[in-house]
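Lay summary. Proteins are chains of building blocks that fold into shapes, and those shapes determine what they do. In this project we predict the shape from the chain. Here is one chain we studied, written as its sequence of building blocks.
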Amino acid sequence: MEFLDKISKKATQACKATADKTGKIAKETKLKLKMGDLKCQINELYEQIGKKVYEQHAREQEIDIKKELEEECTKIDVLSDEIEQLLKQCLELKNKKQCESCHYQIEKEDRFCPNCGAKQTKEQPKEVEILQDLREADVKEEKEEEKQFVEQKLEDKIEEKLEDEEQQDRKNQEDEEGEYEENLKKTVEIESNIEEYEEENDNSNEENKEDE
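And here is the predicted shape, written in a compact code that computers can read:
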């Protein structure tokens, strides 16, 4: 009976993992389709801008970008921001983010970009944004005590997360330093072995010459 329960538990876990993965794939597909639609809208706006510019050129007139293209440019800005948000959601599903310097896709935990080497800024805990919104919110007097209680809980949670991140950073740094020292030690050993081999080889050649 216990054996069957274990099999049933493993099967349930496998089904849940598959369902989660399928759900993420479906969500990512929807996000990408939305991004594709927004990019098409931007391309249409590019065409409208190009048409206006060419018409002015054909009439040998100068075009006032601020006046005549402001509407199209504003729409492109809005659509581009929406695409950026959708892209972030796609990356979040894969536990990734964009490098702040070269926009290469990297792991969320990466402190440096593997593509360009740029150092990444730490992301603030989500609780920081929630706390800010809560502090700016107007509440009834009878709810003020409850608001302060929630604020304190959030502050404690933020402090705890920051301490955990600091400890993890120290551990990562120690691991990196240990790995560097280990690699340096191996390099010295290899170079030492090469020198010993070359020295032995030179001595052997000299002995062979003497024998001849």
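What the prediction tells us: The chain is about 75% helix and 5% strand.
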